[in-house]
Every structure is written in C-alpha cells, then in structure tokens.
DNA sequence: GTCAACTGCAACATTGATGTAGCAATAAAT
DNA sequence: ATTTATTGCTACATCAATGTTGCAGTTGAC
C-alpha cells in the first residue's frame, strides 16, 4: 500500500466515524465526499458498508484497549487508575464518537471485544466498591453506568475542555457529586 | 376518527418511538409490522416519514412540557422541584426513548420547542447554583449535562427501577456523588 | 339495516443507496 | 523510463424504502 492510500483510508475512517456519530444512516457517498475522495474509492477499500463500520469499530476498540492496558486497572491504586483511565478514554470517545453499544450489534466479533473491555471496567468498579472508595449503598452496575454517562457527556458536549481537566471534572462529579454536603 | 383508528395511531407512535430509539433508520415497514398494522395504514396517517417523526417528537415534547409545568421549577424549593422533575421526566424518557437532540434537527418547530424546554431546566439549574445548592466551583452547564446524563442512564439502562427510586438515585448521585467523602 | 370510516392487500412508480466494472490519468517505486 | 499501484470518473445493475392508488372486506355509528 502506498502512502497516499494509507492516508486516505485513515481519513475515511475518521470522517466516517464523525458523520456516523451524528447520523448513523449517513450514506457512503456522504462519507466519501466529506473525506474528499470518490465514492468508488471507498468501495475499493471496504467491500461493503458493514466492512466500513467494522473498521471504524475496530479502530475505536483498539484505542480503548490501549487505554485500559495503560491504566493498570487491576494493579494501580483506585484513584490513580481511575484518573489515568479517564484521561485516556475521553480523547478516544472524542476521536471515535460512534455509539458502540448500538451500532456493533450486528458484528458479533466486535461485540465480543466490546463486552470484554466492558467487563474489565466493571471489575475495576467492583474493586473500587470492595476497597471502600465508593459508598457501601452504591450498586456497582449503577456506578458503572454513571461513570460511562459522565465520560460521554464531557467528551461530546464539552469538546473544548482538555483531557486532563475533563478527567478531573468527571472524577470529581463521580466521587463527590455536585452538591454542597 | 373512530376508536380503533385512534388506538392504532397511538400504537404506531409508541412502537415507532421504541424502534427508532434502537435504530433511527428503522423503516416504516418495520414500524408498521411491529405495531401490527399494514404499511399503507401508516402512510394514510402520516403523509411521509418526516410527519411520523414529528408526531413522535411532539408526543415526547408534550409529555416533557407537562412534567416541567408540574415540577414548578421556578417556585418550589430546589430539592423539591428537582425530585418532582426527576420523578416525572424519567417515565417520559422511558416512554419516548428517541434522542430528541439528534433527530429533531430537521424540524425547526420541534427544535424550538425543545430549546425552550431546555432553557427552563437550565434556568432551574442556575437557580440551584445561585441558592447555594451546588458547590460554588461547579459550572452550571456542566451540572446541567450531568443531570441529563444521569436521567438518560437510569431511564434506559435500568428500566426495572421504578420512577421514585430512580429519582432518588439520580438526585443522590447528582448532589452527593458516589464516593465516600 | 344502511352508511361512513377504516383496514388490509396487491400493484405500481419513484427515488436514493449500494455495489461493480472499465478506462484514462497520475504519481510513486524501481 | 518503465512499471505498478491508486485514483477519479462514468456508466450500469440492483435493491430497499417510500409513497400512491384502487378495491374489497370489516366494523362501528346512526
């Protein structure tokens, strides 16, 4: 593969992710146009629409997996691991804004990978519960859902907040809440 | 209009909202089939796809508006109004799970109504800030986003939790967070 | 019982998206 | 300079979704 080909492929993936996030039914033609390449070129790279989606998901899963690895969720102290995870995952959510939960259902392989990553995070949340970092009356599944919701919110609705500050905001809201206590 | 016609219309709207929430590109044929009516019947009720979407949005906006009215966001004490709003809005989110922010962009009228409702809630959040119910370092827009995220999360990912308990969970996570302090 | 409204069904036209193939032009690699 | 890979463009076939029409059957209202 030549250099320009690789550049085009990556451009299509990123542009596609952005457009598909706004409108999951965005046409291949629209993605190609936004990426600045011809429609047929996209079809040469990706056998069909599914293949394009799979490639986008895989790119997101790759990035997310790297973040999970580097956060050392099982070894590092909970507050440290949490912050490292947040600082890593927020840029991933921004770069690949596609909603993996909804759009990957037809792709069993990607779905399985996603489940595995989800399980790693859930295990971490459970550890946070067990080690007393969360209140005893908090359900682990609820805590997990809250964390995901906060990440998505800061990632997509506040793109101007840089990753370290965003991680602070999320960790703070997650652990302390927003009210005066 | 006869009784069965009204029943069918309402059934199409609710079924459509449910399917469109899972997959915004769900076909009219799929919605009609899930609602148990013929495809042409749906076309008789709604001139086109846009009209069907508009009707769904309008139904959601009507319900949400009623909740905002009854919560007395400007008069009632903040904690009371917050809880009343949550207990009302969570069933609305569940009954009409469509993502209004994304899907109403092509409908300026509905978009304007949505903006107006959004502004009412933002004003309420601002009052909560001003009256000292939120920490002084909390940005009102961030607080607003967190509240929305928590509502969506409990509404869609924990459908088994009933509305009063769900409202408690959200208000608690919003004000106090999940961590030990 | 009659009438009006409503429905399902079949058929049809239209449109937009998808996917393929061929060909000429271009640019990197050798 | 020649080869090779890649691209844009055009044309085409296909398919799924949309929207319309006519007709016969059913059901509620009067």
Helix and strand layout, with pairings?
Two copies of one chain form a homodimer.
Chain A: H1 3-22, H2 28-35, H3 39-45, H4 49-71, H5 78-95, H6 100-103, H7 108-130, H8 140-157, H9 163-176
Helix pairs in contact in A: 1-2, 1-4, 2-3, 4-5, 4-7, 5-8, 5-9, 7-8, 8-9
The structure holds a DNA duplex (30 and 30 nucleotides).
Task: Provide structural commentary.
The structure is a homodimer of 181-residue chains. With 181 residues, chain A is mainly α. Chain A has helices spanning 3-22, 28-35, 39-45, 49-71, 78-95, 100-103, 108-130, 140-157, 163-176. In chain A, helix 2 crosses helix 3 (39-45) and helix 4 runs parallel beside helix 7 (108-130). The N and C termini of chain A lie far apart (59 Å). The model of chain A has no long low-confidence stretch (mean pLDDT 94). The interface between A and B is medium-sized, with 34 and 34 residues. The first copy, chain A, binds a DNA duplex (30 and 30 nucleotides) through residues 1-5, 8, 27-29, 37-41, 43-44, 47-49. Chains A, B: GO terms for molecular function: DNA-binding transcription factor activity; transcription cis-regulatory region binding. Chains A, B: Pfam families: TetR_N. Chains A, B: Residues 6-64 form the HTH tetR-type domain. Chains A, B: It comes from Herbidospora solisilvae.
